[in-house]
Amino acid sequence: MGLPASKRNQRQWSLLDIVTAAFFGIVLLFFILLFTPLGDSMAASGRQTLLLSTATDPRQRQRLVTLVESGHHLQPIEYCPADAVAHMPCEDPRRNSQLSREMNFYRERHCPLPEETPLCLIPPPSGYKISVPWPRSLHKIWHANMPYNKIADRKGHQGWMKREGEYFTFPGGGTMFPGGAGQYIEKLSQYIPLMGGVLRTALDMGCGVASFGGTLLSQGILALSFAPRDSHKSQIQFALERGVPAFVAMLGTRRLPFPASSFDLMHCSRCLIPFTAYNATYFIEVDRLLRPGGYLVISGPPVQWPKQDKEWADLQAVARALCYELIAVDGNTVIWKKPIGDSCLPSQNEFGLELCDESEPPSDAWYYKLKKCVTRPSSVKGDNALGTIPKWPERLTKVPSRAIAMKNGFDVFEADARRWARRVAYYRDSLNLELKSPAVRNIMDMNAFFGGFAATLASESVWVMNVIPARKPLTLDVVYDRGLIGVYHDWCEPFSTYPRTYDFIHISGIESLIKRPDSSKSRCSLVDLMVEMDRILRPEGKVLIRDSPEVLDKVARMAHAVRWSSSIHDKEPESHGREKILVATKPLWKMPSNSH
């Protein structure tokens, strides 16, 4: 007949107890997870597990990319771990240190495949502040934005930089000019026409914190500085935080990403590039980039340097073989002038130098192996020697001979100039975008063509990195002939800069950057490109994208995923076509605590 009632009740009570205890246990766990550091830390660890799974499981990563692209991933993309604040995917020392050291191959760009990269947003360092505006940034920046004391500790006595309270300050010195770059530039101006617009584009090789380039700006000379990712911790990041044009590069096994005859002045102050090694390969690359009639300045070893007599003799021998005119040797500084016209290279010389074959493209320079032959000036189209091109600022608007050499080049150039004057006026007057300091200083145009956007801003106190996509027509030579600067790049790869280095990013035709030219298929993902743009952009920085309404609808969904606020606007009324304009702003977000 069953158990007595008292026994049955006893069993029911114990079941009720278990249910009640379980309920209270769940409530307690909920409170622990919601309101305690343990909860934060468990959530962070869950996020990190998800992050790691997007890096180690390509299928999981692809699922996430597809969800973001389709707008079905409602949460923003996660932030990367706190130790990724200065991450550059293609210059990652942990990854690249395994590679060959021959000709510094391991210090060049080596990019991971997208599926090997976690899909996450690079966080700012703890205590990050909105950057000091230009021109004050040239002399001081926030310490919290790059809390790396190594340069100040090691080079403070040479006047590179100093720590002063909340700031790093820049007295303007360098290893070869502890008295300041101004004094050094004054010395150079005795031999080189630094005033009056004769010189405009300069390349500073191995630039420290770019005080040389920063000081030249006051002479109207636009110097682009480069250095590898370095043991001094982020010299290029310091340069960009100061508002000085710079990017990360290494002269190793490949050409630098510029066309032939780009720079009016090339400068090395203790850059330690072995110009005469490997049969003078590096000097030959400098020669390719230097405009005929341009100036080469080398300060420091091996110029009249103790125990470097052979290296100094070799350097002079290479310059002689290429018919460079020796302008001056002043202490440890040498100044040469490149000849105009085809090289007088003798048939016999101790370095075995010979002229490149006529078929060798002088301006191809995206992952292009260094050549052991000298570029023929006659193989570079147009008349682009110093002295024959107009002085700055006339050269900005006069149609360069390298544009005229293109099909309908004269008309295309003129139409492009008119188009950008109209567009930028609309950006300012109707979209209320401030394209000048103190609002912005470092600007990137990701699809620059002739540099028309940058040219309209040339009278403002901003500078523009004009990027010419490596699979599009290589018009970067025209950009340099106008007195502007830029690089070749393929946007299916990360760019060679540190995180948080640009205030404003401009793109005309974002989808064209990743599409295969012969089909509607993409070579890479728009999501990865947006995450890379977020890495480059400073907090409170802005992005402007021009494209079709369909593309901008996709971009707006992804903008939400990378935490940007965005709005879509009509284009300027005078322009034809279906384009619209998306404007987005990146917020200053902080890492939640315990997310390390």
From TrEMBL:
Membrane association type: Single-pass membrane protein; Single-pass type II membrane protein
Molecular function (Gene Ontology), one example: S-adenosylmethionine-dependent methyltransferase activity
EC number(s) recorded for this UniProt protein: 2.1.1.-
GO aspect biological process, one term: methylation
Alphabetically ordered keywords of this record: Glycoprotein, Membrane, Methyltransferase, Signal-anchor, Transferase, Transmembrane, Transmembrane helix
Range of residues in the leader sequence: none
Listed transmembrane segments: 12-35
Family per record: Belongs to the methyltransferase superfamily.
UniProt xrefs under PANTHER family: PECTIN METHYLTRANSFERASE QUA3-RELATED (PTHR10108:SF763), SAM-DEPENDENT METHYLTRANSFERASE (PTHR10108)
Protein known as: Methyltransferase
Lineage: Eukaryota, Viridiplantae, Streptophyta, Embryophyta, Tracheophyta
Protein's gene: LOC108846598
